[in-house]
Amino acid sequence: MPGRFIAFFAVVTSLILGVHAYLGWRLVPPGLTGPTRALAWGAVVTFALLLPLAFAARFVLRGPAADVVSWLGFTAMGLFSFVLTFTVLRDVAWLVMKASSTLPEDPARRQSLLQLTNWVLLGTSTALTALGGLGARRRAAVVDVVVPIRDLPVGLEGFTIVQITDIHVGPTIKKGYLEAIVDGVNALNADLVAVTGDIVDGSVVDLAEQVAPLGRLAGKHGVFFCTGNHEYYSGADAWCAELSRLGLRGLMNEHVVLRHGDVDVVVAGVTDFNAHSIVPEHRSDPRKAIDGAPPAGLRLLLAHQPRSCFVAAECGYDLQLSGHTHGGQFFPWIFFVRLQQPFTAGLERLKDLWVYTSRGTGYWGPPVRVGAPSEITRLRLARA
Questions:
Q1: Which of 84, 86, 108, 356 is the most exposed place for a label (fewest CB within 10 A)?
Q2: Are residues 191 and 228 in the same domain?
Q3: How far is it, in rounded angstroms, from Cα 58 to Cα 84?
Q4: Nearest Cα to 257, choosing from 312, 284, 220, 295?
């Protein structure tokens, strides 16, 4: 396994270096010579090496050093994503203009135009990385959503569920960030709190202290969670035990029945959609999760990935809460995430099932959010 990991890491690093070589070729002015040119290419190589170092930091470093390298590396990743996207778009436009003979004929003017676009795209990328950093690091705003449920009992009208998801406590998200989220959730005084996976990026040994604020989460009927794919990268069994110790109730293809006034509410949860690829006995099963449940005023499913909805829609659930997509998190991924999931953000309908997909309460990787703000979601049930 270590040999395979090293080989994979080497291949990825080679690809990153190759892409950065393309960026250097397109962005470093050919007129630069001597030390200035060497400095420019040194910056390109440094940025290229920061990307793999961001992922390797927590395996090879400890303490503040790992945090510093992670911050530098993941910030560089966000900047790299913008620069690569805009460079490719610019080069495609350049080829179209060349083919249509709309570029200046004078080579000097062409070179000046090329360098002008380089400065524009670098400046835009830097500005978006900075603005996206502010968006990612602020505490998630509360998003209110009304869910109209057909034949909802009167006793459940106004029932509130607060959902948080995809916090990703780990390299750049620590205890203080999580404490602000917990305070925000508790201020809403929800009937039920749902945590729909991807809580952590790291082991219990490394992150138990950082995750401790989750023990303060409070809902009138309790706090429930389901696993996300990142729990399986970080030791799912250990994390389920730790979260249970903190007072969260895990739902692993199972359900509980709550009594709200004189009405029953069934709360079910499934393991991550791809859990079986890492822990075979954790195969996600919405049918098993609801098996044996009594008639109820609401049947709620917690499922990390929206694509659990296709089976859930056949099982009699009224509402599914999911995350995973981050809403794409930032450009251009806000467009590509639609290729992997049926829903990417907001409230959607599949047959008789409502599916709410949160954009996430934290972020993953680059501390950047552009066009996909984080959220603490307060869902209120209403009679359709």
A1: 108
A2: yes
A3: 26
A4: 295
Same domain (yes/no): 6, 79: yes
- As a whole number of angstroms, the distance between CA 76 and CA 65 comes to 17
Tokens 């829903």, residue located: 343
Domain boundary among 136, 159, 190: 136
Q: Name beta bridge partners: 302.
A: 269, 321
Count of domains in the chain? 2
Query: In angstroms, rounded to a whole number, what is the distance separating the alpha carbons of residues 122 and 367?
Result: 18
Q: Find the domain containing 15 and state its range.
A: 2-136
Kindly state the tokens that stand for 191.
């009937």
Is 185 in the same domain as 255? yes
One-letter amino acid of 320: Q
Task: Using CB atoms within 10 Å of the CB of residue 11, give its burial: 0 to 12 exposed, 13 to 18 middle, 19+ buried.
Answer: exposed
> CA-to-CA distance for 97 and 282, rounded, in angstroms?
54
CATH number at residue 314: 3.60.21.10
Closest CA to 28 of 42, 14, 15, 10: 42
Q: What is the pTM of this model?
A: 0.93
pLDDT, tens only, 105-162: 898 899 999 999 999 999 999 999 999 999 999 999 999 999 999 999 999 999 999 9
Query: Please, are residues 286 and 270 in contact by the beta-carbon 8 Å criterion?
Result: yes
Range 44-49 average pLDDT: 91
Residue 133 CA to residue 229 CA, distance in Å, equals 24
